[in-house]
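sanity check this record:
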Amino acid sequence: MSGIPGPVVTGTIAYLLLGVVAVGGIYGSRATGMLSKDNADIGNVVVSLACFSMWLFWLCAWLHQWHPLIAPIYEG
């Protein structure tokens, strides 16, 4: 039985760290007064959805290339 492929784990951790850094930036902006509470709440939602969407797009692209259904035919 094979586990989760290494690149999937690495990519997931990378996107998770990206999301944590981005949400940390929102909290930092809220703490310094650059963002109001309402704008910080909206920023948290937008950043979370954006990170999840980027991760899902990357995962789909990676999985489609992992075991292609159609092999390329080279004519030469």
